[in-house]
Design brief:
This protein is mainly alpha-helical. The chain has 6 helices and 3 strands. It has a 3-stranded antiparallel sheet.
Length: 150
């Protein structure tokens, strides 16, 4: 039977990656909350909808784009709807669209510049252009496996 334990080298790479991702998410969440009152989940939905034509997207497509389960998306849209950031509108006989409201547009337009500055400060500016390309390439390799695997 093969030994499935990770080597010290593998553990170091794995632990460093997880720690980096957790700290990045925490710091970005803090910045969003302090700067705009939005959660990271709010920002995810608002940014995906703001990139969609007319600020509108089928709910199931939004869930796929965010990589969220149906129940998580439902609860997130409910909370955001209660705050006036998004609406859900029937589309066709069975479809439902998530739609940015005027308040939602204003929230993403207000939050985006400071969020981008924080991403640049915490991540982009820490790497050379070549390292940034390498990082993206390596992340794509792992993502491709995750997205096509079981």
């Amino acid at each position: 039977m093969a030994d499935d334990r990770l080597t010290e080298r593998e553990l170091q790479a794995w632990r460093t990656s997880i720690r980096m991702l957790e700290l990045l998410r925490t710091r970005l969440e803090q910045q969003l909350q302090a700067g705009s009152g939005l959660s990271f989940a709010d920002y995810t939905v608002l940014s995906l909808l703001s990139d969609a034509p007319d600020g509108r997207m089928r709910v199931y497509e939004l869930g796929k784009a965010a990589n969220w389960e149906k129940s998580r998306l439902h609860h997130q849209l409910k909370r955001m709807g209660d705050r006036g950031l998004v609406d859900r509108e029937r589309c066709g006989s069975r479809g439902v669209d998530a739609v940015l409201t005027t308040t939602g547009w204003a929230a993403i337009e207000e939050a985006a510049p400071s969020h981008a500055r924080e991403v640049r400060h915490l991540f982009v500016n820490r790497l050379s252009p070549e390292q940034l390309d390498q990082f993206a390439e390596l992340a794509d390799i792992v993502l491709e496996h995750l997205e096509t695997g079981p």
